[in-house]
Specification:
Belongs to the protease inhibitor I35 (TIMP) family. It is found in: Secreted, Extracellular space, Extracellular matrix. The protein is α+β, with helices and mostly antiparallel strands. The protein has 2 domains: about 45-135, OB fold (Dihydrolipoamide Acetyltransferase, E2P) (Beta Barrel); about 135-205, Alpha-Beta Complex (Tissue inhibitor of metalloproteinase-1. Chain B, domain 1). It has 5 helices and 11 strands; from the N terminus they run H-H-E-E-E-E-E-E-H-E-E-H-H-E-E-E. Strand 1 and strand 2 form a beta hairpin.
Length: about 220
């Protein structure tokens, strides 16, 4: 009986010690958590949107994990002329667990979005950063001009049915339902644009496949 009581005490104690040791070894394992965002929202909510090639990187020893400073060759600026005239460096946390983003050096052109603090451009995993070659034609057109036409609109995520728009400036974003995740068809091919009547609706524009204009509330 004594041994049974000891085992009942030891097992929960070992479980607690295991959990504590896991937390101590990996205190920031799941620290970075980002809400899903449509590329248009990422564009509208960013201070800076550029296309650039990363040509160098340097770890700056500031803070417990440091900051990674990427040197970029800016190809084009789509947004941020009033903040920075030309972007030379991109700053991000060195640790991915703290939402630091990793760029390949001298390999790809990237679309990079971020915020400006004290004249420096910062980005992270919660910003929209993607290899330029992986963007769809609609996303490239959105970045060039369409997304800015919808910055007064609100893209409303729909995670569970039923979902409804509650005002005329909303577009219902249903990628999470029909594609079981992100990115989905609306993210890759549609922009939420304000129409002449004041209503916002999904806009696809010209498609090389069907050569038609699709303008619908729920594509």
């Amino acid at each position: 009986q004594t041994s049974e009581r000891m085992s009942l005490l030891v097992c929960p104690l070992l479980s607690v010690l295991f959990v504590l040791s896991s937390l101590l070894m990996n205190p920031f394992t799941e620290a970075c958590s980002c809400a899903l965002s449509h590329p248009q929202d990422a564009y509208c909510n960013s201070d800076i949107v550029i296309r650039a090639k990363v040509v160098g990187k340097k770890l700056l020893k500031d803070g417990p994990f440091g900051t990674m400073r990427y040197t970029v060759k800016q190809m084009k600026m789509y947004k941020g002329f009033n903040k920075v005239q030309h972007v030379q460096y991109i700053y991000t946390d060195a640790s991915e667990s703290l939402c630091g983003v990793k760029f390949d050096v001298n390999k790809y052109q990237y679309l990079i979005t971020g915020r400006v603090f004290d004249g420096k451009v910062y980005t992270g995993l919660c910003n929209f950063n993607e290899k330029w070659e992986r963007l769809t034609l609609s996303q490239k057109k959105g970045i060039n001009h369409r997304y800015q036409l919808g910055c007064n609109c609100r893209i409303k995520p729909c995670h569970y049915l039923p979902c409804f728009v509650t005002s005329k400036n909303e577009c219902l974003w249903t990628d999470m339902l029909s594609y079981y995740g992100y990115p989905g068809y609306q993210s890759r091919h549609y922009a939420c644009i304000q129409q002449k009547e004041g209503y916002c609706s999904w806009y696809r524009g010209m498609s090389s496949r069907d050569k038609t204009i699709i303008n619908a509330t729920d594509p």
